[in-house]
Structures are given as C-alpha cells and as structure tokens.
Amino acid sequence: MFGFLKRKVREVKAPINGQLIAIEDVDDEVFSSKMAGDGVAILPVGDVFVSPIDGVITKIFSTNHAFSVKSKQDLEVLVHIGLETVALKGEGFERLASEGDEVKVGDPIIKVDLNYIKEHAKDIITPILITDESKYEAIDKNTNVVISGDAIMDVI
Q1: Contact present, 49 and 76 (Cβ < 8 Å)
Q2: Less CB within 10 Å around the terminal CB: N or C of the chain?
Q3: Domain assignment present for 3
C-alpha cells in the first residue's frame, strides 16, 4: 500500500569466482569480530577482482591489496584481498582502475598473482565487507560457491 515505506534491497555481487565463507570463520580477529564491518569472505579462484556494486571507487590502498566502492545510495563495500597482504607492499597486485572512477558491477579493479599471494601472505581469503559508514538495517548473506557477478549479499 505504501511502497515508499518499503525497505530497498541492494545486491552486492561477487567480486571474483570462489567459495563463500562466513565472516566469523576468517582467521583474523579484525574481520571475524566485524570490527571493520559485516559481510562475507571468499576463497578466490581467478586473478581479477571486479566491482561488487555500481558506484565510485572511494579508496584503493597504495599497496593495492584492498579497495572500496560506494554507491549513490550510501552503501560502501570494502574488498580486502587476502590476510596480512599489506606486508607484501604491492607485490603480486596490479591496479586496473583508479580512485574516483565510476564503475559498474563487473568492472575490473585489481589483478593479482594468486600464487604469489598464497606463497607470501598469511591467507588468500578475501573479506567483502559492508563498511560502518553504510546505511543499512540488515544483511542477508549467501554462503555458496559463486561466479563473479553472482549475488552474495542483500543489504536492506
């Protein structure tokens, strides 16, 4: 009856192929305790991480190990490639986009050498978080094997 009161669901898509894992199962307290935000993690298969939402790239870390995209509806998604990967100082990561770029779901952002990261970082598991700056009431999470572009979270 009053459609304007209905909560809008915003889909977050997989930024890469892989197996989804509950964020609580990530072997890093910052992520598993949701200090950096709530979401899921993915055990990636592939080498190109893409935008999980339509929006603007608000941050690509200087070491290229993490990036965030913000939608026009105040939803910001952070993709953190691997654990303790900042210590790699950019080795194994190639930036394909820039901060401030407008992106659509599926646009390439970071290319990785997954074998290098497996060998030199703590883990390749990749947290995908809805940041605390986002405005949302709930997150419905998927925990299946996904292909890049599959819905992994519905944010209400």
Answers
A1: no
A2: N
A3: no
Evaluate whether 20 touches 142 at the Cβ level (below 8 Å).
yes
Contact in structure between 74 and 134 (CB atoms under 8 Å) = yes
Domain count, the chain: 1
* pLDDT exceeds cutoff 90 at 2: no
Would you state the pLDDT for residue 1?
Answer: 42
pTM to 2 decimals?
A: 0.93
Residue 2, in any domain of the structure: no
Structural domain containing residue 36? 8-155
Do 27 and 21 contact (CB within 8 A), yes or no?
no
Q: Encoding tokens for residue 91? A: 């080795």
Q: How many CA atoms lie within 13 A of 112 on its CB side?
A: 30
Place of tokens 């080795």: 91
Query: Could you tell me the two tokens for 138?
Result: 């709930």
Q: Which tens digit of pLDDT belongs to each residue from 20-30?
A: 999 999 999 99
CATH of the domain at 50: 2.70.70.10
DSSP-derived pairing of the beta strands 38-45 and 126-130:
antiparallel
